[in-house]
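seq:
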Amino acid sequence: MKAIRLHQVGRSESLLYEDAPKPKPKDDQVLVHVYAAGITPTEFAWYPTFHTPEGGDRPFPIILGHEFSGVVEAIGPACTGIRIGDPVYGLNDWFMDGAQAEYCLTVAANIAPKPVALEHVQAAASPISALTAWQALIDRARLSEGQRVLIHGSAGGVGSFAVQLARHKRAHVIATASAANTDFVKALGADEVIDYRTTPFETVVRDVDVVLDTVGGDTRHRSWGVLRKGGRLVTVAADAEGLDEPRARNAFFIVEPNREQLIEISRLIDTGIIRPIVGDVFSMEDARQAYDQKPVHGKNVLRITER
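struct:
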């Protein structure tokens, strides 16, 4: 099969478009014929990208891209609940080869039926971002109707889903974005949009119930002060994981695959309540550019199969 493979620690310059062995499903594994895969630039800095679950070094070359949309090609002998030919979307294990290839392996618990309303390219932009927004706002922050939520990075992959989910929960949504993205973020459902380049958000925001931080650094540090007493900050910015500050480490989480949540996200997409935002679509040959070119909105996607 054709694949995009990383040959050394580095960034996009270390990626090669080349031939690779086609994987075979074992036991409860599912082999997916990948039609499209999402681009997550921070994957170059993820611990699982270069390590085994036991803490050893993963051997090169490595295939990135752990969210995808495609069709079930084959299943292992112990796999249940999945049929060959099913259109699916979802994730695969962070410690194994990803989906930037014509085929990838996963398990049934990490995938769900693809939203009917979406093409594969749109569906591939959804699993990580939508699940992250869901697990941040609903599972961890327990966002409810009438609460005030501040969402940083609201025009990005996670942020754009978070704004839509918060609106769906009937929360009051305050978002930070550039002036150029104000109308876009308001169209997603934000009640207020603050231009972070001209207005420090902490000078105009007070007593919010929830902060979702996708930016990290100084943005997260200044966000503690806008929470009401008992308010909750949740961060997905990777810099929080290694900090000495206990509250930042405790606020940080890494998204987990969840079939039931993917099914509910599909329902929300198919009923028009939420939608994925695709930045640009790239061919496999242009994978390096897909990482280097930051999308204006949403997430870039790699098209694997032309259909």
